Amino acid sequence: MDPWLIWLVTAALLGAAEIFTLTAALGLLGGAALITAVFAAIGLPLPWQLLVFTLVATVGVVFVRPVARRHLSPPQSERFGVDALVGEAARVTAEVTGLGGRVRIGGEEWSARAYDETLVIPTGTTVDVIEIKGTTALVYPRE
Questions:
Q1: Which of 72, 71, 87 is nearest to 138 (CA)?
Q2: Residue ranges in 60-106 assigned as alpha helix (H)
């Protein structure tokens, strides 16, 4: 069997395997095998074919794959609802302890508890929202 045909079959097999794995690596190796098949068809000797395959595969995996993976992975979704409040600054409107209190987060008043139950946070203090549990914000004073 001619070497170019072997490279072509290898490229097809790697391309088909890429469909099932979605890693972007096997597809790049299949592309390298396809390019090598072209060089084999014009009569390049086997050692040079292996060198071409190695170089093209290396360039593909090192430079092209990271870009492809960035485009294939979904972007980090926006936070909505109460999830968007985590990490926000809030102002204490009624003293906050481990048992309760009130804070204003983005114009809305929320019930609050201190994230560290031993803390007592006085009115007027700026705090960070650490977590939202139900309708209660767990807060910690900013430093």
A1: 87
A2: 65-72
Q: Does residue 63 sit in the same domain as residue 114?
A: no
Tell me if 23 sits within 8 A of 61, measured CB to CB: no
Give dist(CA 143, CA 141) in Å, integer.
6
Helix 3-21 vs helix 46-59: crossing angle, to nearest 10: 20
CB atoms within 10 A of CB 106: 11
At residue 41, the pLDDT reads 93
Report the pLDDT value the prediction gives residue 42, as an integer from 0 to 100: 93
Q: What is the mean pLDDT of residues 5-27?
A: 89
Q: What is the CATH number of the domain that holds 109?
A: 2.40.50.140
Of the candidates 129, 131, 126, 124, the residue with the CA atom closest to the CA atom of residue 143:
126
3-state secondary structure of 131: strand
Check whether residue 99 and residue 135 sit in a common domain. yes
Q: Tens digits of per-residue pLDDT, 59-109?
A: 988 998 888 778 777 777 777 888 888 999 999 999 999 999 999 998 899
- Residue 68: predicted pLDDT: 77
